[in-house]
Design goal:
20 helices, 486 residues, binds glutamic acid, elongated
Length: 486
């Protein structure tokens, strides 16, 4: 079977995790089966278009490495891949349905439809079109169209019977036709609705599997009716389960869910995000958490998609990102950190020199969860001056004994100045010897030096940091700290 999948975003907002989950499964299914993955822009709701939204979709897909074979920027056998440029196809289909009496023009005004809805709501009835125009005579219709009355085209849903479709995840789903109203397929401006455009395009573009969120299940019977009326075979439907917050409510900002590109901004790796969203509905074996793309490509099957909601847990995503950071090789991590450092470093700081960043990486790789952690951990390597107060330096240990702190700083400075080789092993040996000499606990002595040199109580390993920072800067900072204490 020729697998062809499509990711069909409406450019009405920024791409979210749920969108990318659809794209990921489309991509996996297509790649695993030697098929094609198609990007199609569904911009038929012209009132809701958001500028830049298509670019954001493209950027998010590209960042996540979900490459497509056909699309607006790539072309392909069914070009164009933007629905607003394919209006004649939808109009032809609507015309065919009109001619065959499977659809009809509806002249009802917005006011009438508003009143109808208000009446239905007041009477606690399900809202829906009452089919007034369905019963107009052909002559009436002709006359009103000729008079230039605006109209939409509605699909004439069979009044009886039922409509079913097979969902790959859920099996057979059946609805009574009496619960469906005569939905609009073509608007008065000649644009199709989503239902018509999606069905026509999926057929025309030879889509084999329609993967999308569960929120589209209510639309699927309508699509099925359109398939039947147009005499075209339905694709396989795959409705992915909802993504919920940890409180099992609809996922939203309050759960810490952000747009996909915000995750990039926040220092998440595409590898981690892909891994995380894959597990919101799919599993390898119910156990394995960290899964790379090639494993997914080797093992992905629709059978392992679950009908149960995926639970979005931001802490798990952070953890997973840390796992992925640890899996990167050091050169790679250095390159990925660099732009974040450049972004965060103040103008007064030294430039984020790639060679220096590369040397720092081994000190911080296990201490990071997101790439943005690099800056607070390493800022002291780049900033000219460390701002510490006497309170910071003295802490609890030296609060009542400032002279001991001064003495410790002096001793350290003097000994470090005379150290033969500036390597972390030499530095460590010396510092441990001094600890004894000073009669201090290592934690207190090293803590003081750490605060003086890095400006923080926690930092990457101290001796390695001093080695990289260099003798000159280390001594400068020790001297400065001593001044602060005086
Ligand atoms: N344009 C729809 C959306 O933005 C696509 C739904 C579908 O895949 O059929 O979600």
């Amino acid at each position: 079977m020729n697998v062809r999948t499509r990711y069909a975003p409406s450019p009405t907002g920024t791409p979210h995790l749920a969108n990318m989950r659809v794209a990921l499964f489309d991509w996996l299914l297509a790649r695993r089966n030697g098929g094609a993955f198609i990007l199609r822009i569904e911009d038929t709701d012209q009132n809701r278009l958001v500028e830049g939204a298509v670019d954001e979709q493209i950027e998010a897909l590209t960042w996540l490495g979900l490459d497509w074979d056909e699309g607006p920027d790539k072309g392909g056998p069914f070009t164009p891949y933007v629905q607003s440029q394919r209006l004649n196809l939808y109009q032809d289909a609507a015309q065919r349905l009109l001619t065959e009496d499977k659809a009809y023009p509806c002249f009802c005004t917005a006011e009438r439809l508003d009143q109808l809805r208000a009446r239905q709501t007041a009477a606690k009835q399900a809202p829906g079109y009452d089919r007034l125009c369905r019963w107009l005579t052909p002559a009436d219709r002709q006359q009103r169209i000729a008079a230039g009355e605006p109209y939409v085209v509605r699909f004439a849903v069979p009044l009886e019977g039922e409509t079913g479709f097979a969902d790959v995840i859920r099996g057979e789903v059946v609805v009574q036709n009496s619960t469906l109203d005569d939905f609009v397929i073509l608007k008065s401006d000649g644009y199709p609705t989503y239902h018509l455009a999606s069905v026509v395009d999926d057929h025309h573009m030879q889509i084999s599997h329609v993967i999308r969120g569960e929120e589209w299940i209510p639309s699927a019977p309508r699509h099925q009716l359109l398939h039947q009326a147009l005499g075209i075979g339905p694709p396989f439907f795959v409705h992915l389960p909802l993504i919920l917050g940890p409180d099992r409510r609809k996922l939203g900002k309050r759960h810490g869910a952000a747009g996909v590109l915000e995750y990039r901004q926040g220092g998440y790796l595409p590898e981690a995000l892909i891994n995380f969203i894959a597990l919101l509905g799919w599993s390898l074996d119910d156990r394995t958490e960290v899964i790379d793309r090639s494993t997914m490509l080797e093992t992905f099957t629709l059978e392992r998609l679950s009908p149960n909601p995926g639970i979005f847990d931001p802490d798990k995503l952070r953890w997973m990102n840390g796992e992925w950071i640890r899996r990167l090789d050091e050169d790679d991590l250095a390159q990925r950190i660099l732009p974040y450092l450049v972004r965060e470093l103040p103008e007064t700081a030294d430039e984020a020199d790639p060679v220096l960043v590369r040397r720092i990486v081994p000190l911080i790789q296990t201490r990071m969860e997101v790439l943005t952690d690099a800056y607070p951990l390493t800022a002291f390597f780049f900033t000219q001056e460390i701002l510490v107060t006497a309170d910071d330096l003295l802490g609890k240990r030296f609060r009542d004994e400032p002279a001991a702190a001064v003495m410790a700083l002096d001793t350290a400075a003097k000994a470090l100045a005379g150290l033969a080789a500036w390597t972390h092993t030499e530095i460590e040996g010396l510092m441990r010897a001094l600890t004894e000499e000073l009669g201090l606990k290592p934690r207190d002595f090293f803590g003081l030096v750490r605060m003086a040199v890095t400006g923080a109580a926690v930092s990457p390993p101290l001796f390695e940091s001093l080695e990289i920072l260099g003798r000159e800067k280390t001594l400068e900072r020790l001297a400065r700290a001593r001044m602060v204490l005086e």
